[in-house]
Amino acid sequence: MKSPLADRIRPTELCDVVGQRHLLSEDKPLRKIIESGNIPNLIFYGPSGVGKTTLASIIAKKSGKRLYKLNATTASTADIKEMLESTNMIGAEDGILLYLDEIQYFNKKQQQTLLESIENGNITLVASTTENPYFYVYNAILSRSTVFEFKALTAADIMPAVLRAARLMGEEQGEEISFEPDAAEIIAKGCGGDVRKALNAVELSVLASEHIDGKVTVTACTARELTQKSAMRYDREGDEHYDIVSAYQKSMRGSDPNAAVHYLGRLLESGDLPSACRRLLVCASEDVGLANPQIIPIVKAAVDTALMVGLPEARIPLADAVILVALSPKSTSGHDAINAAMEDIRSGNSGPIPRALQNKHFDGAEAEARGQHYLYPHMYPNHYVEQQYLPDAIKDKVYYEFGDNKTEQAYKDYWKKIKGE
Fold this sequence. Notes:
Layout: H1 5-8, H2 21-24, H3 29-36, E1 42-45, H4 52-63, E2 66-71, H5 77-85, E3 96-101, H6 108-113, H7 115-120, E4 123-129, H8 133-136, H9 139-143, E5 146-149, H10 155-173, E6 177-179, H11 183-189, H12 195-207, E7 210-212, E8 215-218, H13 220-227, H14 239-253, H15 257-269, H16 273-288, H17 295-309, H18 315-327, H19 333-346, H20 406-418
């Protein structure tokens, strides 16, 4: 049984690795370190399918060390012990290079098991993770390693791998493989920056294609059908999720409807309707707020409609609401006011509720001043009367400042007039 195409075509030299020029160009430190053969402990951080495993294999070859691979999703403590025992075996005289994939799935105890061997140099660790290592990797491992971030590949990066894969399959099958115009580009663009997905799409496309003029010809239609679900890189529990929802809200906050709709599309294409709705509701209150307070029930109605009809129709009311939020004037005055008030409460900067506002109407014998003395605002002109509402300790505190938008400035002018200021 053949191994997957991505493994059969895996590069063995640095010059064949696609992308990651910020790490592997001839003038970059990581390339110089690899070529020196003196390999330190490394942590590769980035999305899947961008060359982390490939580079680890090349590093092991360059260093002369014996390569040992573990995947933290399946490896146990027993596997770690077996690997550690192998450091004394013949063939490991120059040490072992341990490639630990998905290190974030190792718990603290499992990561600590590696420390002694890393310290004495028996093991050189090259670990990879799709999650932020500063959150998931044990500090003692981090302090002994250098972190390099891998980037998602562009279509231009992936195109050479797509063409190379087609050539390899042609050699294996003893026939010529060609692409219709745009077919290879569709695959390169449609894999979401993941070269492994692109190579899988090439393999499937070739297997699904027919002979035209004596050649296996991959049509644009076939390429599109087999890559249309590959363009979305998304993990609801990982960094990509938080990156997308962050970009989604920041685009609405930044008043860019085009970007906001784009990131909404990413969320919906991945089926993550709850995140799209939640962030939209938050943005309407946090970022638009009092500059356009009528937007909150409008957005809520759009979200209710989306949740009721479900996907794919949910995209329509949500797109309307997202564009409305992006185009609305913005104000964080309400957001800032509640944050300031809660900060005072958490720090103990508060005090007893003024007697006039309490919900008791009779005073005990110990009370120095009897009577509630509450002034009912609706009995006064303009439904307003001045009285103290905040506790004595913070009676002059100002949490809310009028925003500079038209709506809040109108409120400001109104209250200046009512209060005779």
